[in-house]
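Side project, low priority. Logging it here so it doesn't get lost.
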Amino acid sequence: MHLLTDPRAEPGFDAPAAAQPRRLTLAFTGDGREYFRIWVVNLLLTLATFGIYSAWAKVRRLQYFDRNTLLAGASFDFHGNPRAVLVGRLLSVVLLVAYHYAFGFSSTFGMAVIVGLLLAFPWLMRGALRFRLGNTSYRGLRLGFDGSVPAAYLAWLPPAFTFLMPGVLLALYPEKPYLAALPVPLYLLWPLMHARIRRFQHAHLLFGDQHSHYTVKSRRFYRFYLVAGGLSLAAMIGAGVLAGVVGAAAGSKAGVAVAIGVFVGLLMVYLAYLLIGPYMVVRVSNLAWSNTSFPGLRIHSTLPARAFMKLQTKNALLTILTLGLYRPFAVVSVYRFRLAHLAIEVDGDIEATAAHVATRGGAAGDSIADGFGIDLSW
């Protein structure tokens, strides 16, 4: 009977403790002055080559930020081919020019271009995600993206259609401009479209051969849009009232009053944009990333809305006052701020987790390769 006794019940037996999760933070080792030098060289070479060098500039920028991003003592890396970025940018220019001038030739040609854009856009966005993630690595393991083509169309086609339709209706029926408002009710579904795009992005991430898991209900996005809509409405009302007060104070100088009123109104709208944009970034990022995980690894995003709004407002003002020269410092400050509020919780050691992740191969590896060929830079 003694042989059947559970040894864990014997006095003095200590069961091995379960591995406690470790919370790891990310760090950025670069700085604004160093990136400023890279930014200036990229800008000058891009201007000197009439934009062609912008593809190489983007790769240098991504390599700088990835190689200076540390997690548990190891850095990320980017392996993208600048020629692929250049091809993607040329394609982007062709698509935008075709969209802008298509209806100038004929309605039939214009509709053909719009249909082509709607059919190509989801596929191209999927390819861009595969390019960016498939060329990023950590501890020698490639990240990746395996979202399917049908899922890409479900995610991207509705918002693309909603965005294009007002312009298409206006081009087809210029004598009836009110028809451009017909797709407006579709914007009530915009939070659901945004949620579907985020699901497509976060539910198909790869770390080696490990797939991500994403758990967010689409209806949760409505709250963010309601708050942002309320802030926009308050800003418009405030801009109207302030413009009216300034106009009345100007008295009989009608032209001056109108000019001042318009300036004040635009300023108020821009300030509201500086608040609403960061608010949406913070809320959506925290929700999406904090509900994204891999086996044995969980991500936590805790961006504070007010602090991020203050940072973005400061960056915008300094960029304007310096005629754009503060831009690289602003980019670094935002990147460092976002990393400081992003944490990775790992069951055990990140080294052990990475060691047990297999490199993709076979059919999976072949399927990832087709994403290396294009980057739209959208």
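Brief comment: Confidence is low (pLDDT under 50) at residues 1-9, 361-373.
Revisit when time allows.
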